[in-house]
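Renewal narrative, Specific Aim 1. Our central claim is that a sequence can be written position by position from structural information alone. The example that follows is taken directly from our test logs and has not been curated for this report. It begins with the structure tokens describing the chain, in the order in which they were read.
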């Protein structure tokens, strides 16, 4: 939370003090000078290099952000910073003490100032927050994040079942992420002598590492390598595990497109430790979507469509294709809590494969607690 408190309370406070001194009309040119705008409108509080002036110099107790801290400064896209500075704190559920400065500085001037602020992070190995594209239901995104996700899958079959994954992701360093996935499921007990109608179980716990291999803001592209292993912790007799470790390797790709659109892709392979208990499998996942804003500075609604293909390395195996239409809804003003609802439709072998209802709830815990930002 602290990076947002710093950002919302003090970025605009610096703009207020600077605006009180008046921004020269020369800055309102067709090509704003970001450094000049920053020095005139922001440096009074944030200092000439973005590290923040001392509290006794600025006259308030709230800590100032350090824009030279790449771990903090690289995470958010410019658009979020401009929204907070332009509309004031309440637009992202921050304190109303932070006023709106849409009349003091234009959007073009604020964007120029943000571009200059980006130069304070000297380590360019940190991928920009613009690459944190909306999370699809199946395709893994390339950007490393700090998130907790609860996923639920409900097959549309004759036997009732509910499968859940609790996912914890934590970023470390500029380009890395650690992940742990804990599956929990319930199945209808169809055995006529069973005492309970439902049986539950823990699935195969998965551990994963992600590393950004390439990112380029000018091209709008990011590529990451992902390595994962599923441990045989689930009960295979009840359908909650594979009874063998499975190693997975994949490449994830993200592409920023015009008009708030994007494309994501993932290609990978699963290799079981014991081939007699599970088959090798290759997969391809593609996702495309676009974010819509009913209010320029409000919450986005993001419809997406995924195409998912997989094929086992087994005799007479078919390539199975699925389509996954879905909608991601931003729940919190701070944009750190999101809901996605989708439907996975079998496009091939649909006589033996069930469709699935999919839903996830995502919490970006780096941006604040679940109780904040509403």
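The sequence written for that structure reads:
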């Amino acid at each position: 939370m602290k990076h947002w408190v710093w950002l919302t309370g003090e970025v605009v406070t610096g703009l207020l003090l600077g605006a009180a001194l008046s921004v020269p009309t020369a800055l309102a040119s067709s090509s704003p000078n970001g450094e000049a705008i920053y020095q005139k409108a922001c440096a009074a509080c944030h200092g000439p290099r973005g590290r923040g002036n001392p509290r006794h110099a600025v006259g308030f107790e709230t800590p100032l952000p350090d824009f030279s801290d790449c771990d903090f400064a690289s995470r958010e896209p410019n658009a979020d910073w401009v929204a907070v500075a332009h509309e004031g704190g309440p637009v992202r559920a921050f304190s109303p003490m932070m006023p709106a400065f849409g009349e003091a500085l234009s959007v073009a001037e604020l964007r120029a100032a943000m571009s200059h602020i980006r130069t304070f992070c000297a380590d360019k190995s940190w991928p920009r927050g613009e690459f944190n594209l909306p999370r699809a239901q199946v395709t893994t995104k390339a950007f490393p994040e700090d998130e907790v996700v609860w996923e639920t899958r409900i097959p549309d079959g004759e036997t009732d079942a509910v499968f859940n994954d609790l996912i914890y992701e934590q970023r470390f360093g500029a380009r890395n992420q650690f992940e742990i996935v804990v599956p929990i499921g319930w199945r209808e007990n169809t055995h006529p002598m069973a005492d309970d109608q439902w049986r539950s179980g823990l699935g195969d716990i998965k551990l994963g590492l992600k590393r950004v291999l390439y990112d380029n803001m000018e091209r709008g592209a990011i590529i990451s390598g992902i390595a994962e292993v599923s441990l045989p912790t689930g009960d295979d007799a009840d359908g909650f595990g594979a009874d063998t470790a499975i190693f997975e390797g994949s490449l994830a790709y993200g592409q920023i497109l015009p008009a708030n659109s994007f494309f994501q892709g993932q290609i990978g392979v699963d290799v079981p430790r014991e081939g007699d208990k599970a088959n090798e499998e290759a997969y391809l996942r593609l996702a495309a979507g676009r974010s819509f804003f009913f209010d320029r500075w409000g919450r986005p609604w993001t419809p997406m469509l995924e195409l998912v293909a997989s094929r086992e390395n087994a005799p007479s195996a078919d390539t199975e294709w699925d389509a996954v239409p879905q909608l991601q809804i931003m729940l919190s003003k701070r944009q750190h809590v999101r809901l996605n609802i989708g439907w996975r439709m079998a496009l091939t072998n649909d006589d033996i494969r069930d469709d699935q209802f999919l839903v996830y709830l995502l919490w970006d815990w780096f941006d604040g607690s679940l109780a904040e930002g509403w």
